[in-house]
Design brief:
The complex is a heterodimer. Helix content of chain A is about 0%, strand content about 55%. By secondary structure, chain A is mostly beta strands. The N and C termini of chain A lie far apart (about 40 Å). In chain B, strand 6 (about 60-65) and strand 7 (about 70-75) form a beta hairpin. Chain B is globular. The chains are: A mainly beta, B mainly beta. The interface between A and B is medium-sized, with 26 and 20 residues.
Chain lengths: ~110, ~110
């Protein structure tokens, strides 16, 4: 069966520090991958999505970037974190055989202080 | 994506069936109804989806009215672990930019 892993679960970082969040999917090939952010008490904001290795589309211009170095690996990065980058970051995947259903990881709660 | 309307909150006694309504009166013919839930501090979890017919899986049942303008998610025997925010989403499956938009959802509280 397919599984999605996200880490770390929680992260506290100072303003101006770099960020790297990793997401990997197992049990499927060539998935579409997504990074979302959810602010406290708010809905989901799509940040990036990828339909293949090296292919990244950005939904919202911001302080973050994404990369997909391998088929089932998706990385969210920042060179210098801002206070406004705090939030709950979620990785998700979809594959052709899943009726376009998105499956989410457990999330990373990032606090920038 | 069609707009959905859900009650902001509901309570249900443990062991009873929880019936969560969703209104989507502007749904178009090729839009599906999806249900997700989000337990506190966890990622959203897919529950079920359907187009026209009623659907059932190991988690829940989905009842869609004949005119498709509303639907009901049924959790047949609610447990305390079903306490979560439930989201009804109506959209056309689009393999590519599959941006999910969650509304405010229904906060379901299961009471012991």
């Amino acid at each position: 069966s397919q599984t999605i892993h996200q880490w770390p679960a929680t992260l506290v970082q100072p303003v101006g520090s770099p960020l790297s969040l990793e997401c990997t999917v197992e049990g499927t090939s060539n998935p579409n991958l997504y990074w979302y952010r959810q602010a406290a008490g708010r809905g989901l904001q799509l940040l990036f999505y990828s339909v293949g290795i090296g292919q990244i589309s950005s939904e919202v211009p911001q302080n973050l970037s994404a990369s997909r170095p391998q088929d089932r690996q998706f990385i969210l990065s920042s060179k210098k974190l801002l206070l406004s980058d705090s939030g709950f970051y979620l990785c998700a995947w979809t594959s052709l055989g899943s009726a376009h259903i998105q499956y989410f990881g457990a999330g990373t709660r990032l606090s920038v202080l | 994506d069609a707009k959905t309307t859900q009650p902001p909150s509901m309570d249900c006694a443990e062991g009873r069936a929880a019936n969560l309504p969703c209104n989507h009166s502007t749904i178009s013919g090729n839009e599906y109804v999806y249900w997700y839930r989000q337990i506190h501090s966890q990622g959203p979890q897919y529950i079920i989806h359907g187009l026209k017919n009623n659907e059932t899986n190991e988690m829940a049942s989905l009842i869609i009215t004949e005119d498709r303008k509303s639907s009901t998610l049924i959790l047949p025997h609610a447990t305390l672990r079903d306490t979560a925010v439930y989201y009804c989403i109506v959209r056309v499956p689009n393999f590519g930019n599959e941006k999910l938009t969650f509304g405010t959802g229904t906060r379901l509280t299961i009471i012991p």
